[in-house]
Amino acid sequence: MTTTSIDPRTRLGPVELTVAGLDRLIAFYQDYLGLRLQRRDSGTAELGTGAEPLLRLVERPEARRLRGTTGLYHFAVLVPSRRELARLIARLFRLGYPNSPTDHLMTETTYLDDPEGNGIEVYTDTPEDGTFGFAGGRFEAVDAQGRARSGRDPLDLEELFRHLRPDDDLGAPMPLPTKIGHVHLHVAGLDEAVRFYHEGLGFDVMGRAPAFQAAFLSAGGYHHHLGVNTWQGEGAPTPPADALGLRHFTVVVPDAAEVERVRLRLQAQEVEVSGREGALLARDPSGNGVWVLPQGG
User: For residue 190, what is the enclosing H or E element?
Assistant: First the structure.
């Protein structure tokens, strides 16, 4: 880890989205994902599992969904166990909501979109099952027995559902340890995105695969807190301000001193930085917004 690495205790905080129908999205995230409504004001809402929200929704009824732009690929909600993942997937199946359970070896996961097309991943970490990474610019996955795997196999739901108990309430909210595990972004170019998130914010590059058109970065050796890809095409445009989707995501660092270190690195890249005292807001070269806040800030 280089001396410019962001503090290894760094984690992700709330994701903020522009939505067209606040009532509809609140109902979805409560009933289908199991988040709790923590606060609602005129045109805004916060949902989560504990004191800190995981998701902020800002209503703009005139906002529209655009394709082929930079922005959110998905935000990923990390649940603490296979049992909780099984409960979430069973609830989605019971409600008839489309989702795609997938085995990434190091994680077990399911993918879905909310009713306005925002990508969501819900996963649990399962490092005992194998590893994934990059070698020679290619994605590689190896299971615990040393066998090469795709890393994108269908999840064994029969095995997963064995973790459920007869008295489990499929409609119960997500548990308190649930958090934002990572955010995956569409960007216009990998080089400039990696430079911003690695040299600017200070996340370590965990792997990059040009053939896969993606790179992954993290703090403290985690498999990834950030993914960036050019799957919308090299040079994809930034969406206009009235578009549905990502407003910004949040990086939470231990203290204000770490915020200042990030500020200095971004300014050395001539990145425009705004925000408030002790916190900063910046946009990556593709227009994706990121707040950097101290713990409790």
Answer: helix 190-194
Measured distance CA(189)–CA(214) in Å, rounded: 10
Instruction: Please state, in angstroms and rounded to a whole number, the distance separating the CA atoms of residues 125 and 147.
Output: 19
Residue 15, beta-bridge partner list: 55, 249
The Cα-based distances of 285 to 39, 170, 189, 266, 291 in angstroms read 32, 42, 9, 12, 15
Q: Tell me the H-state helices in 20-163.
A: 22-28, 82-95, 157-161
Tally of domains within the chain: 1
47: containing domain: 11-294
Q: What size, in residues, is the chain? A: 297
CATH number at residue 202: 3.10.180.10
Q: What are phi and psi of 32, to 5 degrees?
A: -100, -40
Tell me the C-alpha distance between 245 and 241, whole Å.
10
3-state secondary structure of 146: coil
pTM, 2 dp:
0.96
d(CA 67, CA 74): 14
Sequential pLDDT tens for the chain (297 residues): 345 899 999 999 999 999 999 999 999 999 999 999 999 999 999 999 988 999 999 999 999 999 999 999 999 999 999 999 999 999 999 999 999 999 999 999 999 999 999 999 999 999 999 988 877 777 888 999 999 998 899 999 999 999 999 999 999 999 999 999 999 999 999 999 999 999 999 999 999 988 889 999 999 999 999 999 999 999 999 999 899 999 999 999 999 999 999 999 999 999 999 988 899 999 999 999 999 999 988
